[in-house]
Structures are given as structure tokens and as C-alpha cells.
Write a structure and sequence with these properties.
The chain is an alpha/beta fold and about 300 residues long. Helix content is about 35%, strand content about 15%. It has one domain: Alpha-Beta Barrel (TIM Barrel). The chain has an 8-stranded mixed sheet. The protein is globular. About 40% of the residues are buried. It binds iron/sulfur cluster. Iron/sulfur cluster binds next to loops. The site of iron/sulfur cluster has 11 residues, from loops.
Length: about 300
């Protein structure tokens, strides 16, 4: 079973010289809301203290700080991004880890963050199910908006989840989902298309669908399907050992289409930087990407 030390030892260098008072990225996009109507979304990728977990597939640590985030830095980053982004109805505050980790996002910054989110109808933040506490409700109460929490469910395959070094079980996820929903928080699940240790295509596809079904059964309203790539050092090791195969984008499409046909919630394909995995020409990729963007936007399972 991989452990933190092995995962960290395999890493290449982190991005150096990050400014704690600047987001490392921000963007504007569109996404359908729970009622299917398109919403404008501002996403801010916050620079903050590295996540304490060390999942084997994760490369989010690259844009993080080693020290606790200074007070005032997160509001400054959000203000910087929002000064440059257009109006939107939804704001995603993605911090490459856990929004409710108090060393990543200081609790003393909550009131100012909530103020900066005024006017948005929905605020989406990421969090690990094991990072809980009164700070979640405290932040929720400061908001003049719905709070949605995105949780990395990854894979509920019984032989895969324990080896991902995520340090959660399916029961932990169900328990966290129940507690969050009881306080009126909406849930979004990140699900891996092709986690390591699943190398048979039929099993990989079925396991991804099983995980999506698990998410909807647990009360998640939205899932995003993420192709797993190399780039963090440990994944290269798994690939060399034959324990990881790159994502099949046709499989991504077929999983999303099948899950949409259940009509249980929103299903998104994460298309970030997937071009290298397309087996055909640039022209055929552009056609495919455009069809997938339509699927993401309209959630209609039609060619
Ligand atoms: S919990 Fe999330 S951010 Fe932390 S290591 Fe795992 S995948 Fe990466």
C-alpha cells in the first residue's frame, strides 16, 4: 500500500516563487445550474498551504505553499481575480486542497471572503470528508449564497480506493455527505475515469459508472469525471509497473452519456488538457471537443 513518504519522494519540483497574495490562475466559464439553466461561473484557483493528504494520483500540490497561508492573503487573491473577471452568478473558490483546512484558508478571513462573494447565488469550494468542524457552518452562515462542497470521491472500487492513499472509505464519504446535506449544503463529486490499478477497459468503465451511481445514491447532485494523467512522479512509477493506463476519451464520453441517461443529476466531463490523449487528428479532436462541450453545457444525451 503506498504511503505519504513514497508519494512525496517520487515528486518532481514544486512551482517556485508563488506569491501568497495572488491566485495562481482564474477563469470565466459557463455551466448549467441545478435547474438546467446556464450560469456564468468565475473560478479562482487560490494559492494556499499544501493539502495534508498525499493521494497517489494528485498533482495539485505543485501550485501550493509549504507554510500556512498568511491572514489576508486569500481575500486579496479573490479581490485580484474578481477585479479582472466579468460578472457571474457562481463562484468556485478552488484551493487545490481543502477550503476548511484552517492552515490553508484562515478562519479569520471568512467574513471578508463572504463579503467578496456577495451577489453570487452559489459558492463552490473543495474539501476532504475528514476535514470537518464548526468552521463549515460558520462560513455557510456568513454567505448570502448557497454553499456547494466538492468532494473527491475518486473511485469506490474496493481494491482501488484504499490504495489511492486518500485515507477515506465509502462509509466516510456517505457519512460526510449526509452531515453536509443536513445543513443544506449541496454536493459535487470528483470521480476518476481511470484510476491506477484498473487496467482492464471494461472493468474501468464499469467501476466509474458504479462510483457515479454511488455518488447519486449518497445525495451528490453533480459529478465531474476526471481523466487521470501522469506528471506527479508517482503515477510515472505506476505506469512503468503496468498499474496505470492513460485515459480513453471515447470511454469518457460513453460514461458521461450513460450516466446522463439515468437523469439523476448533472454529469460533467473534465476536459482540461485532454488533447494529448486523443488518438486521432486535430480536426477530429476539435469536433469531439465541441460535442463534449455541448454535452457539458446542455446535459442532453444526444449526438
Ligand atoms: S485530498 Fe485532494 S488535494 Fe489533497 S492530495 Fe488528495 S486529491 Fe490532492
Amino acid at each position: 500500500m503506498p504511503n505519504n513518504r513514497e508519494v512525496v519522494a517520487a515528486r518532481p519540483e514544486k512551482v517556485s516563487g508563488l506569491d501568497p497574495f495572488r491566485p495562481y490562475h482564474f477563469l470565466h466559464e459557463q455551466e448549467p445550474g441545478p435547474d438546467g439553466r446556464l450560469r456564468r461561473v468565475n473560478t479562482v484557483f487560490l494559492t494556499n498551504r499544501e493539502c495534508p493528504f498525499k493521494c497517489v494520483f494528485c498533482d495539485l500540490w505543485k501550485h501550493t505553499l509549504d507554510e500556512p497561508t498568511p491572514e489576508g492573503a486569500i481575500p486579496a487573491q479573490i479581490r485580484y481575480a474578481l477585479d479582472r473577471l466579468p460578472e457571474a452568478e457562481v463562484i468556485k473558490l478552488y484551493n487545490n486542497g481543502n477550503f476548511f483546512d484552517l492552515k490553508a484558508i484562515p478562519r479569520s478571513d471568512y467574513p471578508e471572503i463572504a463579503e467578496l462573494c456577495a451577489g453570487y447565488e452559489r459558492v463552490i469550494a473543495e474539501n476532504h470528508p475528514k476535514i470537518t468542524g464548526p468552521q463549515i457552518v460558520q462560513f455557510q452562515e456568513l454567505l448570502d449564497a448557497e454553499l456547494e462542497i466538492a468532494i473527491g470521491i475518486e473511485s469506490i472500487h474496493p481494491e482501488v480506493l484504499p490504495r489511492l492513499n486518500k485515507q477515506i472509505s465509502g462509509d466516510d464519504i456517505e457519512h460526510a455527505a449526509r452531515k453536509l446535506r443536513e445543513t443544506g449544503i449541496s454536493l459535487r463529486g470528483f470521480i476518476l475515469l481511470n484510476p491506477p490499478w484498473l487496467t482492464d477497459p471494461a472493468e474501468t468503465r464499469q467501476s466509474c459508472l458504479d462510483t457515479i451511481r454511488f455518488a447519486f445514491d449518497a445525495g451528490f447532485e453533480t459529478v465531474s469525471i476526471i481523466p487521470v494523467r501522469t506528471g506527479n512522479g508517482y503515477m510515472e512509477k505506476l505506469e512503468a509497473d503496468g498499474a496505470y493506463i492513460p485515459p480513453d476519451l471515447h470511454m469518457l464520453e460513453s460514461v458521461v452519456r450513460e450516466a446522463l441517461s439515468w437523469q439523476r443529476g448533472r454529469v460533467f466531463a473534465d476536459l482540461w488538457d485532454v488533447r494529448p490523449f486523443w488518438p486521432g487528428s486535430s480536426e477530429s479532436y476539435e469536433k469531439w471537443e465541441s460535442a463534449m462541450n455541448k454535452l457539458n453545457l446542455h446535459q442532453l444525451n444526444q449526438d
